[in-house]
């Protein structure tokens, strides 16, 4: 079977059947011809225009009384009448429905005096070895990974302060010059304006959030409607729940061990840390000045054009 009409001669048009390829592709047999290399010729070669590669059937070649031999260098079509000496035969695979089926329990010929091991294991034994070699049904469960979280360009808020994203990073290895080792980052979903606050203990988180929300609501004459955070105890506690209830704020929590659901805060954390680290390297200041560097990075990022959808700065 071929898809190259140039290889054929004495071609005649036919309406043959449909040939299916891999990947839900296929084509119809529209012609039939002969092919020759000057030494041997084959007839009834089907033409399928959509076929990208030529196909050669070993069983059909054998039907024409030829023999086919394979070795490490290639495949050879031998003249009719060629026979292999019995003493050369080690395995035999009978032809069944145009397929050569090798049954190891029956294929060994006694005349060859071949020595090999034939598996007599039952299905139960096979599964046991399958599990011992760490290849079993549980493999898929053990090797599965998290599903990707592609970015979606969807505006879910309409006004500033409608949703605030919060995250806390720390404790850092080196305390600041004032003894701080935690940093709270709060980002407005609409404008991407951010606030940072530093603390020595993460138990101070609630007080800082409470004061900040009251302050920005009075300052901008807008109301905080929703806040989103992870499930850390600094966010998920009785005091925070009571405050949100009293203010009518909906507190959204990301799923456990899924930082992608709090992506705005996580991305802001990384941006601030990378910018602050760069500032410390450039200024050659010691690491305890990291709070000043983070605060400076936040101040700068709030005043550069980072939100393209508004064509203006966060500030």
Automatic annotation (TrEMBL):
- Per its UniProt entry, what is the enzyme's top EC class, as one word? transferase
One GO molecular function term of this record is: RNA-directed DNA polymerase activity
Signal peptide coordinates: none
Protein biosynthesis recorded as keyword: no
Q: Which residues form a coiled coil?
A: none
Keywords, alphabetical? Nucleotidyltransferase, RNA-directed DNA polymerase, Transferase
Q: Does the keyword GTP-binding apply?
A: no
Top-rank lineage group of the source organism: Eukaryota
Q: Under what name is this protein listed?
A: Putative ribonuclease H-like domain-containing protein
């Amino acid at each position: 079977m071929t898809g190259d009409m140039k290889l054929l001669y004495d071609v005649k048009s036919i309406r043959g059947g449909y040939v299916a390829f891999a990947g839900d592709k296929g084509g119809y047999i529209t012609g039939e011809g002969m092919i020759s290399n000057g030494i041997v010729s084959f007839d009834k070669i089907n033409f399928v225009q959509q076929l990208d590669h030529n196909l050669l059937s070993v069983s059909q070649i054998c039907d024409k009384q030829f023999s086919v031999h394979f070795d490490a260098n290639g495949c050879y079509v031998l003249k009719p009448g060629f026979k292999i000496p019995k003493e050369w035969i080690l395995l035999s695979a009978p032809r069944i429905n145009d397929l050569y089926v090798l049954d190891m329990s029956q294929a060994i010929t006694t005349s060859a005096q071949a020595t090999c091991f034939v598996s007599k294991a039952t299905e139960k034994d096979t599964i046991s070895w399958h599990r011992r070699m760490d290849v079993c049904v549980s493999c898929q469960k053990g090797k599965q990974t998290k599903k990707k979280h592609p970015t979606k360009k969807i505006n879910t808020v309409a006004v500033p302060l409608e949703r605030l994203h919060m995250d806390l990073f720390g404790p850092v290895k080196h305390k600041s010059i004032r003894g701080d080792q935690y940093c709270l980052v709060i980002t407005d979903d609409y404008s991407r304006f951010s606030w940072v606050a530093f603390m020595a203990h993460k138990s101070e988180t609630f007080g800082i959030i409470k004061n900040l929300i009251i302050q920005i609501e009075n300052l901008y004459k807008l109301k905080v409607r929703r806040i989103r955070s992870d499930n850390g105890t600094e966010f998920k506690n009785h005091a925070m729940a009571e405050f949100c209830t009293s203010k009518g704020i909906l507190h959204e929590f990301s799923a456990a061990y899924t930082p992608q659901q709090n992506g705005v805060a996580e991305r802001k954390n990384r941006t601030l840390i990378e910018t602050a680290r760069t500032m410390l390297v450039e200024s050659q200041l010691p690491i305890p000045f990291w709070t000043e560097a983070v605060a400076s990075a936040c101040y700068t990022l709030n005043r550069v054009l980072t939100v393209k959808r508004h064509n203006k700065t966060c500030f």
